[in-house]
Amino acid sequence: MTRPSWDQYFMDITRLVATRSTCLRRQVGAILVKGRNILATGYNGVPSGITHCDVEGCLRVRLNVPSGERHELCRGLHAEQNAIIQAARHGVNIDGATLYCTTMPCIICTKMIINAGIAKVVYAEGYTDDLAREMIREAAIVVEHFNGEPGDATP
Q: Whole-model pTM above 0.70?
């Protein structure tokens, strides 16, 4: 039996978390890890107690909003936002944590990641957001792309 690398293990869990999403456009999962311990999880979706988009319909589709634009025109929160909020709600210190995410964070999530003190981001799929890449680089946060091979998260 071959054990998965830590990156593979955490990315597999991140993909499982994404399956909870009720977003009609994209399922995204995120987990916060420190010392090889999972601190919090998040997936993209509407706030607690609000009707899910798979029932209500997608506001972004109705308004014809292209991907990557006008993030405020959405009923849901991003997976990274939900993981950070979950940690805050439960009083979990995420300073210095690693964020594993199925998708590279957007600019809004990047600003939250910077201010939350997250030290490293490992993502599976790219996301076109030049400002997010510029700011995360300026903040000296380590960013690694994980392409699915054991131990293959690369800067």
A: yes
